[in-house]
Amino acid sequence: MAGHSKWANIKHRKAAQDKLKGKNWSKLIREITVAARSSKDIAANARLRLAVDKAYTQNMPRDTIERAIARGAGETDNIDYEEIRYEGYGPGGVAVMVECMTNNRNRTASDVRHAFTKYGGNLGTNGSVAYLFTHQGMLSFAPDTDEDAVFENALEAGADDVITNEDRSLDVITKPDNFSAIKDALAENGLIGEGEVTFYAVTRVTLVEDNAKELLKMLDMLQELDDVQEVYTNAEIDIIQLQQFQ
Length: 246
Description:
Number of domains: 3
Radius of gyration: 18 Å
CATH architecture of the largest domain: 2-Layer Sandwich
Helix content: 40-55%
Largest sheet: 4 strands, antiparallel
CATH topology of the largest domain: Alpha-Beta Plaits
Strand order of the largest sheet: 3-1-2-9
Strand content: 15-25%
Number of strands: 10
CATH superfamily of the largest domain: YebC, transcriptional regulation domain
């Protein structure tokens, strides 16, 4: 929103997510386990590489990561996690997608529905809001980053696009499978950005204060659920509101 830095929002959101994930390694272990089903080769499995990188940033021990990989590869006893996506609308009509991993579909559906209902949202059918998001990697760089260096190195590494924002911060857009390689290529040239592979909203909806407050409560409740891995929304909320209500 006007008067507030996009970069500040990115840093604040990442800090909030890191704080939450740091309290619960089980979500990361689930992601590693499921990602390793297709291959335990980290170099060849982009999804597994991302999951392991996240685990290391949360200071997860190497042996814990290796056990999760072995479990996913079928080398030890494995819990059969099912991946489920729930879609719906939150306060103010904003789109919300919730990605889960669960061994009990009924429990997860009930918990997610309760969070939506409690804060004035409602679940929709599959595909009801997914079309409002695009799956991609994004690396964001602070406004003082060398723009020419980011453009040159990112495009040479195979990035899809580089966007210059109004506050002069930069976004490098990648295909999901290319994210880690492009991130590494940029880092080798001293260009360190904040980013992830996620679902980004094609269009965003700005919320008034009361709806923003209720949405943030709903998102917090969803993210606290053990079975919820990620929550995405197309809401646009002022950084001051984030600081006030979180």
